[in-house]
TrEMBL record:
Organism listed in the record: Yokenella regensburgei
Similarity comment: Belongs to the enoyl-CoA hydratase/isomerase family.
InterPro entries (alphabetical): ClpP/crotonase-like_dom_sf (IPR029045), Enoyl-CoA_hyd/isom_CS (IPR018376), Enoyl-CoA_hydra/iso (IPR001753), Enoyl-CoA_hydra_C (IPR014748)
Keyword line: Lyase
Molecular function in Gene Ontology: enoyl-CoA hydratase activity
Source taxonomy: Bacteria, Pseudomonadati, Pseudomonadota, Gammaproteobacteria, Enterobacterales
Annotated GO biological process: fatty acid beta-oxidation
The organism's place on the tree of life at top rank: Bacteria
Name by which UniProt lists this protein: Probable enoyl-CoA hydratase echA8
UniProt EC number: 4.2.1.17
Length: 255
């Protein structure tokens, strides 16, 4: 049985974590499959956006502790895991997480890595690593504090306590809440809308949004203007403006 189910819905790639016996815990093999699927999608002009999901009870309940348990300092230093996370993060196409149930530890970190998070009303987000004598190690401390702010991020990381979907919405961690049975459907619908936009504009906008969390406002504004200017040379920009003037739906070609 494959640990990652891959289906395509029009221009949307749906990636479903499929380790039910391990509550979708993210081991290195699954992270590798996810990285490879996203890298293939990045090269596929027929895919405009990707959705990552789990099942109705578990998005992903964390890292695979059985895999990590015997890793000493040297093994941890030489672990390929950071490179796998970096490959997933490098995806240039929009990533939407459709989260039902528990997104804990590495599962929460995977959701935080995505550009948009949609949650079922049964979702819970948490970084419980502190209860195991460790701490988040795949971006949890850095992305969470940028998402929800210092006070709530510190409470979650230092106590190990999780938050529900409503609190996550209030804090800005998720964009929408829906019934669990509809989470994937709504995420694919949003991804379909996103995938209908200009591929070049999407890539540029995602880059600018990501950089906003890493550079000063001045540097971010400069990058935004540079990317805006570069898009002026694309066929898609001409098509978008022409379609607006002619009151029709644009046909973007990624050129």
């Amino acid at each position: 049985m494959s640990e990652l189910l891959i289906t395509q819905h029009d221009r949307v790639l749906l990636l479903t974590l499929n380790r039910p016996q391990a509550r979708n815990a993210l081991n290195n093999a699954l992270l590798l499959q996810l990285a490879e699927a996203l890298e293939a999608a990045a090269q596929d002009a027929d895919i405009g956006a990707c959705v990552i999901t789990g099942d109705e009870r578990f998005f992903a309940a964390g890292a695979d502790l059985n895999e990590m348990a015997d890793n000493d300092l040297v093994a941890t230093l030489n672990d390929t895991r950071p490179q796998l996370w970096a490959r997933i993060d490098a995806c240039k196409k929009p990533l939407i997480a459709a989260v039902n149930g528990y997104a804990l530890g590495a599962g929460c970190e995977l959701a935080l890595l995505c550009d948009i998070v949609m949650a079922g009303d049964n979702a819970r987000f948490g970084l419980p690593e502190i209860t195991l004598g460790i701490m988040p190690g795949a971006g949890g401390t850095q992305r969470l504090i940028r998402s929800v702010g210092k006070s709530l991020a510190s409470k979650m990381v230092l106590s190990g306590e999780s938050i529900d979907a409503q609190r996550a919405l209030q804090a800005g961690l998720v964009s929408d809440i829906c019934p669990p049975a509809l989470t994937v459907e709504y995420a694919v619908k949003l991804a379909t809308t996103v995938a209908g936009r200009s591929p070049l504009a999407l890539q540029a906008a995602k880059q600018a949004l990501r950089q906003s969390q890493e550079v000063s406002l001045h540097a971010g504004l400069q990058l935004e203007r540079q990317l805006f200017t570069l898009l002026a040379a694309t066929d898609d920009r001409a098509e978008g403006i022409a379609a607006f003037r002619e009151k029709r739906t644009p046909t973007f070609k990624g050129r």
